[in-house]
Write a structure and sequence with these properties.
coiled coil, 3 helices, extended, single chain, five-stranded antiparallel β-sheet, alpha+beta, Thiol Ester Dehydrase, Chain A
Length: 162
């Protein structure tokens, strides 16, 4: 029993990203499932991790179960995109690390960066739109909760016995 080596966080993020990309082909774009799968090979255009930055929040202790979540973090470039990653500890019920990944689309046959394939760009743009809508919905709900708490505080503090 001890803390998990920091290199493991990179492996968790990498494995989860591969699953995330494959799931795009299964759930978001089944018509292009083979194209999504091929992104994980060195045949044609694939994805390369150009850089990863990890902010460790606390050391995960073995044994633990973790969950890893990815989201597209900024507008797409011509041949690159970025992902924000959250690694959660089940045992501690909190964020163990946050990562930022820069990903490049790469043409293995040409040995050079490649434009983001159109099928991928279409799904990512739709995903980013949904992310923004969901974030706005969450912000609206938090504002409503804050307003209700404020009303409750005013009603309690406005009582004669207070």
């Amino acid at each position: 029993i001890g803390h998990v080596n920091n290199v493991r966080y990179v492996k968790w993020a990498e494995s989860a990203r591969v699953n995330w990309v494959r799931n795009m082909g299964v759930h978001a774009d089944p018509a292009n499932r083979t194209n999504w799968e091929n992104l994980m090979t060195n045949q044609g255009v694939g994805l390369i991790l150009a850089s990863i930055k990890i902010d460790y929040k606390f050391p995960v202790q073995f044994p633990d179960k973790i969950s890893v979540y990815h989201k597209i973090s900024k507008d797409l470039g011509s041949h690159n995109f970025a992902l924000d990653v959250m690694i959660l500890s089940e045992k501690e019920q909190r964020i163990a690390a946050r990562c930022h990944e820069d990903i490049v689309t790469y043409n293995y046959a040409m040995g050079a960066k490649a434009p983001i394939p159109e099928f991928m760009r279409t799904v990512f743009e739709d995903t980013m739109r949904l992310q923004k809508e969901t974030a706005q919905d969450a912000a609206d709900e938090m504002r409503e909760i804050d307003e209700k708490v404020g009303e409750l505080e005013r009603s309690v503090l406005g009582r004669a016995e207070m």
